[in-house]
Amino acid sequence: MGKGFLSYAAAAVLQAVGSGYQYGFDIIDITGLPGGTVYPALRRLEGSGYVTSKWEKHSIAQAEQRPPRKYYEMTRAGHEALADAVKRYRLLEQTLLDKKRDQKPSRA
Amino acid sequence: MPVFSLRKQFFTRPHLWLINVIGVIVPRRLRADWRQEWEAELRHRERLLAEWDRLDRRNKLELLRRSASAFWDALWLQSERWEDEMIQDLRFGVRMLLKHKGFTAIAALTLALGIGANTAIFSVVNSVLLNPLPFEQADRLVMVWDDNAELDRRHEGPSPGNYQDLRNPPGIFASSAAWYVTARTLTGEQDAEQVQCALVTPDFFTTLRAQAASGSVFSAAQTEGVAVTLATQYASGDRLVVISDALWRRRLGASPDAVGATLTINGTDWRVQGIMPPQFAMPDRDVDLWMPWDLSRTYGTHSAVGLPRSNRFLKIVARLQPDQTPEQTQERLTAFSANLAERHPKENKGWRLRLTPLLEERVGKTRQLLLLLLAAVAAALLIACANVAGLWLARAAARQREAAVRAALGATRARLLRQWLTESLLLAILGGAAGLALARYGLTALFALAPAGVPRLDEVAIDRRVLLFTLALTALTGLFTGLFPAWRNARTELATKLKEGGEKGATPGASQRFRQALVVAQIALAMVLLVGAGLLTRSFARLIAVEPGFDTSNLLTLHISLNGPSYRRAETTLYYQRLLERLRALPGVVAAGAVSVLPMGVDTDFERPYWRAGEPEPSAAADKVALRMATPEYLPALGIPLLAGRNFTAQDRAETPAVILVSESFARKVWPGESAVGKQLMLDYTRGKYAYEVVGVTRDIRYYGLKSKPQPEVFIPHAQTPFLPMNVVVRTAADPLQLTGAARQVARELDATQPVSKVNTMELLIQRSIAPDRFALALLGLLALLALLIANVGIYSALSYTVAARTHEIGVRMALGATSRDMLRLALGQGMRLALMGIALGLLSACALTRLMQPLLFGVSATDPLTLSVGALSLAIVAWLACYLPARRATKVDPLVALRHE
Fold first, then answer.
1. pLDDT for residue B553 is more than 80
2. What is the ipTM of this complex?
3. pTM for the whole structure
4. What is the chain A residue with the closest CA to B39?
5. Does residue A47 belong to the interface with chain B, where contact is any CB pair within 8 Å?
6. pLDDT tens-digit profile of B188-216?
7. B 2-41 residues inside an 8 A Cβ radius of A
8. What is the pLDDT of residue B765?
9. A18 has a chain B CB within 8 A of its CB
10. pLDDT of B816-871, one tens digit each?
11. Higher model confidence: residue B562 or residue B52?
12. Cβ pair A108:B71 closer than 8 A
């Protein structure tokens, strides 16, 4: 995976990870993008080294009686790439994140 | 995940089940991880909503939609497959194929020939036999025929009177129509041209549910009261005509304003009402005009008793009632025939109406030829497969060591099997792709070779069904060629293989036996094809050796269909007399005559009832004889000898007593043991029932082509019964085609409005009549040669391999005193044993299979002993050669070298 331009969707996903939304489903809710877009974007970002992932401990998941989650975290390279992308998609923050943050995760 | 829990999951949590299913295409390395992540995602969703069982339908669908989006995620991961085992196998397979270029090229070419031939023939079968005719619900269309078993007359068209009854309610068919094809002449600014015209009853287009490309077809209401009668050129009401796409382009320059334009047909003006689309070819592709035809008016003027019931000539197409099967309709038709025979016993006793699917009627005899070819190419592909399987087996033996090393390094048996199958499938795909390309070009060649009579050839194309066929064939080929070698290779015990050290030892018994079986199968299949081709060769040789009964060389034939109001009886006679005189005056012309029906099955014939004068008239169902109008010069021009009596002369005129000539078989049949000359024969023809004096007897000729026996015939002087359409035959001193221009010029000078058509030589006509046989022979012959070649390469390589594998053994034997002669005998004997087994097996199968070819054969039995023995002998000789070369290598083995080989 090359370190070229981030697509709009990938940038949105990266932005979401950077803002502390760490699981796939949180990112889906916050970006409003479908799962079929978010997960491939996460894989691409991970392939480019912009995010890293790790599975949460089994014990935690078991305690909460749910399957273990996979956490994504932004890397330093991810921060730089996001800064680049935000420059390019100047409207990203207002139009996407602000709007979404006001909304309840309705698609749940 | 175990199967039972998966199944349970499908009912309890379908969204999770879907994730598991989609997960199958995720590369194995990532699969568990991937499934877990998506499961977490979906369980999270589910928890946010409610337990699955308590969800409403909308939310359930929402969850399913979410799980389905995992598919895109899974697809995205496909690029990660590069490191998967399958890709490894593929890469390795490609590398192996590239490394052994010679093997790859030979094996792929063998398969390409087999797959290509199958694709080409199947695409023809697909278009001609499988694709429906281009009509709406074409499978509901049938044709109706009249059969009489007692009189041995089959497949005749129903008579107008019977057809009219058939149309009466209650309708046996949803709708039906009749047609009759006749010739019409177009005149106008361009040269006069004769075209085929179908006179069609009003329901013709509605029965077929055919629409015009522009303008419209006739509707029943529109054509009511419009009539074109058969005998004359009379028409009442609006003169409307529907034309073919071809005529529209040829005659009207594809003009957009053609609808409503006027065409001069047989001297009167007709308005073009519609133009049919190019694919409309009913009754066949030669028809350019469709004219409305009113059956009752055709006969209404001169028949008090209604339409005639014994003239069986109509072609009927019908659409089945929506709720009726063909069988049910046939039952009703049979009952109807019985009723007809009861009401009109004189005309209908013993006759029975029968329906056949329209498709079958259109395809006709081509079906047998195509199925034969399909069987032949399938056999060729089997040979190719067996051959390639043999090659793989040899490779497998050579690569035992590789397999052993892989196994030692931890490859499972399944993995080894898959590796091999990947390679053989790759090779098959290579062969399939090349085969597809071969088929494309092969089809072009096939069309060039194909006789003119093959119907629907213009519809042949490599469509999706053909592509699927080729794909399936390729996959099967890959499996068939690779499976046994792969299985062999994966099965052998690791220790043995490593110890044996590759190909030095003798091959394992089972593998050897399988190779031998493959060789036997190839030889047997080649034998069947060879016998098939041999039978067609013999049949064809018989066919061209048939004596047609007259001298066929240097004969030019041309057709003239006189028309127009100016040609009545006397004018017609005069026209042909003048035409023949002028033709005879041309330099290089030896003789010229004219006849109403040319030999070699070119024209449609007509037959009339006859009986000896003084005897009572027989029933309508009695024998009929074919009538021909001829000028006095016709028999000498064709070289038909007179056996008794005299020929027609210029003195046989309209006002002199009616005379006829009869053929020898007719004379024998009617006056057995007596001389026919001087006898009176009653004929029911244009003069009514009338006595004709036999003045001469002609030798029989094969009027209906080389395949059929001479039929009884009666000749009537053209001057006494003038006939408008005639065939002129011109015997020339040199190449008859050189006279074409001059002959056309003579006709144009005489009357430029009368077109000359169908200019041919008699030899061309004969060639054309045997073209389908030539076509079948050429294709099957080619296939048989190919099969012979491939099968012998198979036996050659199998024996070469055995000799190479047994070098050590041969060395030991020779060291112990065996001579090189013994070795030759040993190797040759082994190869020839297989060949002879194959030949025997092939002969047995040939006897069983070629029986299906009988309808395509002429004068040869399907189990012709000569063909069988010559085929077996030639195959044995070629197989001996294929064995001899590797066997000789066995004699060249130097014992010292062979033993050191160890």
1. yes
2. 0.73
3. 0.70
4. A67
5. no
6. 777 778 888 898 888 899 899 998 998 98
7. 33, 36-41
8. 85
9. no
10. 888 888 888 888 888 889 899 999 999 999 988 888 888 888 888 888 899 999 99
11. B562
12. no
Residues in A touching B73 (Cβ below 8 Å): 35-36, 39-40, 43
Q: Which CB contacts under 8 angstroms, 24+ apart, belong to B319-328?
A: B319/B137, B319/B140, B319/B141, B319/B142, B319/B173, B319/B174, B319/B175, B319/B176, B319/B207, B319/B209, B320/B140, B320/B141, B320/B142, B320/B173, B320/B174, B321/B171, B321/B172, B321/B173, B321/B174, B322/B140, B322/B174, B326/B142, B326/B355, B326/B357
| A39 interfaces chain B, CB cutoff of 8 Å | yes
Q: How many angstroms separate the CA of residue A5 from the nearest CA in chain B? A: 18
One-letter amino acid for residue B812 of the chain: V
Report pLDDT digits (tens) over B494-527.
656 555 544 444 455 667 788 888 889 989 999 9
Proportion of chain B above pLDDT 70, given as a percent = 91
Cα B348 from chain centroid (whole Å): 35
Distance from CA of B94 to the nearest CA of A (A): 26
Regarding the domain delimited by A8-102, which CATH topology (the fold level of the hierarchy) does it fall under? Answer: Arc Repressor Mutant, subunit A (1.10.10)
What's phi and psi for B684, nearest 5 deg?
-100, 95
B73 inside 8 A of chain A by CB: yes
Q: Give the separation between CA B478 and CA B424, rounded to whole angstroms.
A: 5
Mutate to test the interface with A, among B13, B55, B73, B80 (most CBs of A within 10 A): B73
Contact B539, B773 (CB under 8 A): yes
B72 and A69 in contact by Cβ < 8 A? Answer: no
pLDDT tens, residue by residue, B292-307 = 887 777 666 555 567 7
Distances (CA, A) of A36 to A68, A69, B28, B75: 20, 18, 20, 10
For residue B687, report the phi and psi dihedrals to the nearest 5 degrees.
-80, 0
Contact flag B40-A40 (C-beta cutoff 8 Å): no
Angle, vertex CA B626, rays to CA B624 and CA B630, nearest 5: 145
